[in-house]
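Bit of a strange request maybe. I'm writing a small parser for structure token strings and I need a real example to test against, not something I typed by hand. Could someone generate the tokens for this chain?
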Amino acid sequence: MAKDEAQAARRVEELRGQIKEHDRRYYQEAAPTISDREYDRLYKELLDLEAKFPELVTPDSPTQRVGGKPLQAFDQVRHRVPMLSLDNTYSEEEVANFYKRITKLLPNVKIPVVIEPKVDGVAVSVMYENGKLKYAATRGDGLVGDDITQNIKTIKSVPHQLPGAAPRIFEVRGEAYLDKKGFEKLNKERGAAGLPLFANPRNAAAGSLKHLDPSVAARRPLGMVFYGTGAVEGTALDLHSKIFTLFKKLGLPTHEDWWLADSVDKILNAIRDLDEVRRDFAYETDGAVIKVDALAQREKLGFTAKSPRWAIAYKYAAEQVETKLLDIKVQVGRTGILTPVAVLEPVLVSGSTVSRATLHNEDEIKRKDIRIGDTVVIEKAGEVIPAVIEVVKSKRPRGAKPFDFFKHIHGKCPVCGGEVRRDPEFVAWRCENLLCPAQTTRRVEFFAARGALDIESVGGIVADKLVERGLVRDPLDLFELKVDQLAKLNLGTDEAPRVFGEKNATKAVQAIDRARTLALSRWLYALAIPDVGKTTATDLARFHETIEDVANSKLLRDVTAYHELRADKEAAKQIADRLIETGFAEPSKSKADKNRGIVTQVGPVVAQSVLDFFDSAAGKKTLQRIKQLRIKPATEKISAKKAAELPLAGKTFVLTGALPSMTREEASAKIQALGGHVSGGVSKKTDYVLAGSEAGGKLDKAKELGVKVIDEAQFRNLW
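Reply from user aminoacidic:
Good idea to test on real output. This should exercise your parser:
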């Protein structure tokens, strides 16, 4: 070994020893002896030396807690001893009943119990063999959990190697948590990045541990509290209370505060004492756990099908406070749902200042009779945004009026001013404007729908999660997605992840690539241009080669100009002649039209709407990105002469019922491709009603008006 390398090796060992000792003092004793800056300096020096001399890197080095390569999916681990959940109780009376119950099962003996904090985190099992960390797993279903070893190794308070003579088999169980300060910092960073906030530290911890990329867990301030054991060989434990001393001896972080009690009164006093001190803990707690101390007594008490008879969890009531409701703001979610939020007079609750609370929906406001100016009771219960529980009606100010949701928003979307509609499925109001800046998910779903660009693999929950995870902010972002990004997409929750997978991701990217050259009519419809439905999109595509041609359409400008200049007969006639010559218009046959004007493929309202869209900042950006992404929709343009020669040219169809061998969407596309028009309603101007099985009122209307009714076979004969 060269002199420089030998010196580096000695210094590396010194630094590792110092860093591990500082980690122990910080995470296990909560008594650091150096500043964060000094700690970072030591860590940086070690990092630099290992980079310069990579042969000195060892698996147990503090720098290796950053985790390995991202995983494709989690392996499964079968617990040697089942990880059962505890029964919960919310009243002191039920705690008393629990103790009375176990004393009846074990009469005439003292039954001491341990009372310890219930950490609001994620249950984890960590297996050590001969002192070395072998694997770590989630609770899962109690019998089988996910292998999260790489993520657990990133937690600085979890030792990779136990010191001294550790038990041969030592399975320890505890709660992984995100500390309170770290949680606030993480949410600030996510908010600044435009990402959704975690609801509480528990969700954040779960999301970190179940992330397929261990480096994500490494960047988050995760901690661990061990409170019990599973499979153990090589040491004798007879009392649970002895475990805390053993854990400390082995360098495993555990509870600092716990109590022993052997009567109902002592148990209840311990629960109350814990409630007084728990808010000072680095982690969130939501209750107290009461466990029989003697392992021999536990064995006699046994288990029910779901939980041990020798333990119970007491949940503290969520803190409730009163404050004044100053206003109600309405937010628009990414699916277009309008959600009311209470603006509150700031008040301290559960350790943090709260100024907003969710009101859920219009029905909830009516049910609780919530009014602006009311004094309300709010409850945080560990969530970022608390809820309004009830109104203190005795403190209601005079003149407070019932809240009218529709009038409050002036009947319009508060973001875009678009029309809103009451959505019965969600018991909520929804903005109908797909171009509303707030509702990205709906735009992506519409864009990818079968009738648009047919990228169904990125619809529904996939679209929602793409937006939620910050991968897509605009439908065109889909064309920049890579297979590896989609493969890792979590379609589940942070607590219960469900990965999209490489196979599905590959199919999705292939579908996205195919969409680059789909027909122009599909693209015009997918862009959700106001007033442009499928029929209009088809009509526009027949007279324009590219999206740019539509954006700069002389035909559409002539349509708007014609209707603006109809009083000027000479000018109007010149425009009409041009439109007729191109086939975009034909002379009006209506007797009501005394001026013998023209009928255009699209009306003036639609024409202006299309021009306005592409003239807007959003429209210009869309055109620019389409060009940058090298998207080239297939042209459907045909000459006026050819259009007139198409077999269904000038014919109007209405469809009703189910056809034998084609969908109504396919039939509509065929009609439009052959020069015909598809209408939604039957009138005297309708040429044919194409009827299938279970036809409805449109068939009756056709018979009443004498409109010709045809089936699919007759329809095919028209070609």
